[in-house]
Amino acid sequence: MVDVEKLLCDTIEKLNFNIYVQGSLNEEEIEEKEFCTYWLEQIEEQHKDNTAVMARWLFDFNFYSTNLNYGSTFDYLVQELKKVGFVPVGRGGSVVSDNKRFKGRSVQIRYKEIY
């Protein structure tokens, strides 16, 4: 079995971006100018003959930046996630930050894990 959550984090960290579980940071902790967060929405299993054969993972993936031209970096990160098997659901949209220094984009991403 693939540790899908680890795959997501490792992929982003290899690109030199920090990634955190959504909601795990407080405003005073944020020192970097760009970072990512994620939230695992659900894992849906598919069964055949009462045996789980596949899981579909659904994450919210968020990118925050102090740079107003953050869109190309967000697109780059999504493209890199696609290379390891994640599939974005649409093009994403804006995401709010508790810290006014940051603007953000968010997209849901799926991953199909075959057992």
Account of the protein in words:
The chain has one domain: STM4215-like. The protein has 2 helices and 5 strands, in the order αβββαββ. 21% of the residues lie in helices and 47% in strands. The protein has 115 residues and is of the alpha+beta class. The mean pLDDT is 94. The chain has a 5-stranded mixed β-sheet. The relative contact order is 0.23.
Shape field: elongated
What's the main sheet like?
5 strands, mixed
Percent of residues in beta strands?
over 45%
Strand pairing plus helix content: what structural class?
alpha+beta
Indicate the CATH class: Alpha Beta
**Any idea how many domains?**
1
What is the fold named in CATH at topology level?
STM4215-like
Could you give the order of strands across the largest sheet? 1-2-3-5-4
Count of DSSP H/I helices: 2
Rg calc: 15 Å
Multimeric state: single chain
Number of strands: 5
What descriptive keywords fit this protein?
115 residues; STM4215-like; alpha+beta; elongated
Q: In a few lines, what is going on in this structure?
A:
This protein has 115 residues and is an alpha+beta fold.
Secondary structure elements and their pairing?
Layout: H1 4-14, E1 19-21, E2 34-48, E3 51-65, H2 71-83, E4 87-95, E5 103-114
Parallel strand pairs: 1-2
Antiparallel strand pairs: 2-3, 3-5, 4-5
